[in-house]
Specification:
alpha/beta; 6 helices; 3 strands; 54% helix; 18% strand
Length: 127
């Protein structure tokens, strides 16, 4: 949602991490968000630089998701995480237990993918 709260956050942020499902409507929403980020960078916050996209709830068996993923990589290049977060039942169960997915089941594929995404982000930030 591009509410006033979101706009205020963008005015103060130095970067934007966009978790995105590889689906058609998410791709449409991404276009709006990218335009907003560019507008905020131009008009309000010149320090707003880093924009990275993390593909989440990804199911490689679905052709549309593969196509959207490829389009993201082609269009945004290095701004797309190499790590992909798979659709994972254990991640979906975690909130019902009041726990983050990486705590609820550390050995699940989803939790491992989120940990890999964290490592990738730290590497990209030079830390």
């Amino acid at each position: 949602s591009l509410s006033m709260l979101t706009l205020n956050a963008l005015c103060l942020a130095t970067g934007v991490l966009i978790p995105m499902q590889c689906e058609y409507y998410a791709l449409e929403g991404l276009s709006d968000l990218v335009r907003t980020v560019k507008r905020v960078r131009t008009e309000k916050n010149r320090d707003l630089n880093l924009m990275m996209i993390l593909r989440v709830m990804f199911d490689p068996r679905i052709t549309l998701q593969q196509q959207v993923s490829e389009q993201l990589s082609l269009h945004f290049g290095d701004n797309v995480f190499e790590t992909v977060i798979p659709r994972n039942v254990r991640l979906a169960e975690a909130p019902s237990y009041g726990l983050p997915g990486v705590v609820y089941d550390k050995s699940s594929k989803g939790a491992q993918a989120y940990m890999a995404a964290g490592r990738e982000m730290l590497e990209r930030m030079g830390r």
